Amino acid sequence: MAKFQLTVNGQRKEVNADPTTPLLWVLREDLKMTGTKYGCGVSACGACTVHVDGVATRSCMLPISLLGDRPITTIEAMANDRVGRVVQDAWVEKDVVQCGYCQSGQIMSAVALLKETPRPTETQIEESMGGNLCRCATYVRIREAVQLASQRLK
Amino acid sequence: MSAATKRSKDHGINRRSFLHASVTAAGGLLVSLYFNRASAQEGASAAQGPPKINYPPDAFVEIRPDGKIVIQVNRLEFGQGVQTALPMVLADEMDADWASVVPQLAQAKDIYKDPVFGIQMVGGSGSIAHSFQQYRELGAKTRAMLLSAAAKNWNVGADTLRTEPSVVIGPGGKRATYAELAKAATAMPVPANVRLKNPSEFRYIGKRTPRLDSRAKCDGSIKFGLDFDQPGMLTAVVAHPPMFGAKVRGFDDADARRVEGVREIFQISLPRGSGIAVVADKFWTAKQARDRLKIDWDTTEIAKEDTTALWAKYRQLAGTKGLSALARGDESALDKIASANRIVAEYEFPYLAHTPMEPLNTTIRFDGDRAEAWVGSQFQTCDQMAIAQTLGLKAEQVLFHTEMAGGGFGRRAVPDSHVQREAAEIAKKLRGTTVKLIWTREDDVRGGFYRPMFFHRVEIGVGTDGMPAAWRHVVVGQSIMEGTPFAMMMKDGIDPTVAEGITDTQYNLANFNVSIHQPKVNVPVLWWRSVGNTHTAYVMETLIEELAERTKMDPIAYRRKLLKPDAKKLRAALDLMEAKSAAWRQKLPKGHAVGFALHESFDTGVAVAVDVSIVNKRPKVHGATVAVHCGLAANPLTVESQFQAGSGFGLSQLMAKGAITLKDGLVEQRNFHEFVPPYIMDAPVAVDVHIVPSTDPPTGCGEPPVPVISPAVANALSKLTGKRYRSLPLVEI
Amino acid sequence: MSSNRVSAPILAALIFLCTAGAVVSASLGKYEDPRPVDGIAAWQQVYSVLVSPRCINCHTASNYPEQGDNRARHFANVVRGPAGTGVAGFRCVTCHQKENADSTGVPGGKNWHLAPLSMKWQDTNDQPLSSAEVCRAITDRARNGGLNGAALLKHHTEEPLVLWAWSPGRGVDGAMRTLPPLNHDEFVAATKQWVDAGMPCPK
Question: What is the ipTM of this complex?
Answer without folding.
Answer: 0.98
